[in-house]
DNA sequence: CTCCAGGTTCCGG
DNA sequence: CCGGAACATGGA
């Protein structure tokens, strides 16, 4: 591919690109050549990793910001609790970073994530992008930006159900319309503390505590947010409450908030990705 | 065919 | 606050 001759370098210490893109926090990147093809906002992006350097067609600053290359991983690792489950997850996920996604596309994809496998979420994301998003390209590469809330707001529920969304179509449409009308302002959320921002997100249809925490973590840099999905719930019950009979969701929430600390979101993502990877290996 | 997937919402104890 | 049920779809 001729475009690869013009790639610019971005220093990237303590970073594993493939691990980060494959960890279930973002869903639209596709493997191409020795790297990945995707979109950041409206910019078509190719990025590949060679040792401790990323090579890309876009501005290095854009890449460094999106992949959160400024997050202090050594400090984050030191903050992790020292228990066997966490140690295994860290050994498996070293170099995985929590990235900074654009808020709306992160929110929208997690609204469509409920009771869906990661592969399905990616499939839905690509269908919505291809049908309703702007086509962007550089050289021979073509990608599709995620359609804005205003764009989705003008569609019908039938249009979205045709993307295999099922009951999630109503939620995505309802949220897009509330945001398009200005009833919820995703930019103003940045000024709020975690609890206030979470409460604001939960006003949207299809957004409960888990989805709100994913959005806080993956789009708002709230690295303490600890989403509890079926995988993490299993990990917590099996590895941290092994002896207990009845453990409620509230107990799990309280425990994880206190136990995993100021970078709990990182701990959560490492436990999540490790659990999911090792489970799929077995079967 | 059955089971499950990065849940949310509503409803009765 | 807690447990159950309904809600769509597709892969294993």
Report what the structure shows:
The chain is 48% helix and 12% strand. It has 283 residues and is of the alpha+beta class. The chain has a five-stranded antiparallel beta sheet with strand order 1-5-4-3-2, with helices on one face. A two-stranded antiparallel ribbon has the order 6-7. A hairpin with a 2-residue loop joins β3 and β4. The protein is globular, with a radius of gyration of 19 Å. The model has no long low-confidence stretch (mean pLDDT 96).
Number of helices: 14
Uncertain residue ranges: none
- Average pLDDT reading: 96
Question: In sequence order, what are the helices and strands, one letter per element?
Answer: EHEEEEHHHHHEEHHHHHHHH
Count the beta strands.
Answer: 7
Q: Describe the biggest sheet?
A: 5 strands, antiparallel
Gyration radius from CA atoms, angstroms: 19 Å
- Main-sheet strand order equals 1-5-4-3-2
Measured distance between first and last alpha carbons: 37 Å
Judged by helices, strands and strand pairing, the structural class is alpha+beta
- Which strand-content bin applies to the residues? 5-15%
Inertia-based shape: globular
State the helicity in percent bands: 40-55%
Task: Provide a quick synopsis of the model.
With 283 residues, this protein is α+β, with helices and mostly antiparallel strands.
Features:
single chain, 283 residues, alpha+beta, 5-stranded antiparallel β-sheet, two-stranded antiparallel sheet, 7 strands, DNA-binding
């Amino acid at each position: 591919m001729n475009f690869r001759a013009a790639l610019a370098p971005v220093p990237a210490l303590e970073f594993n690109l493939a691990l980060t893109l494959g960890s279930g926090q973002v869903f639209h990147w596709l493997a191409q050549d020795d790297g990945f093809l995707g979109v950041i906002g409206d910019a078509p992006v190719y990025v590949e990793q060679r040792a401790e350097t990323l090579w890309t067609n876009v501005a290095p600053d854009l890449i460094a910001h999106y992949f959160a290359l400024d997050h202090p991983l050594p400090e984050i690792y030191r903050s992790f609790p020292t228990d066997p489950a966490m140690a295994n997850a860290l050994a498996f996920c070293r170099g995985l970073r929590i990235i900074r996604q654009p808020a709306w596309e992160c929110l929208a994809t997690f609204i469509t994530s409920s009771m869906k496998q990661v592969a399905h979420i990616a499939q839905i994301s690509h269908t919505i992008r291809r049908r309703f998003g702007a086509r962007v390209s550089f050289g021979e590469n073509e990608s599709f930006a995620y359609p804005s809330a205003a764009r989705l707001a003008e569609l019908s529920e039938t249009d979205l159900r045709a993307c295999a969304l099922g009951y999630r179509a109503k939620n995505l449409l309802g949220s897009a319309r509330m945001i398009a009308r200005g009833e919820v302002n995703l930019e103003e959320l940045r000024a709020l503390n975690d609890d206030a921002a979470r409460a604001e997100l939960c006003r949207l249809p299809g957004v409960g505590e888990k989805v709100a925490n994913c959005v806080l973590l993956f789009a708002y840099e709230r690295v303490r947010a600890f989403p509890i999905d079926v995988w993490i719930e299993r990990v917590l019950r099996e590895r941290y409450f092994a002896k207990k009979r009845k453990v409620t969701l509230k107990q799990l929430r309280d425990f994880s908030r206190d136990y995993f600390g100021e970078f709990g979101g990182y701990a959560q993502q490492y436990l999540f990705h490790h659990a999911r990877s090792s489970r799929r290996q077995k079967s």
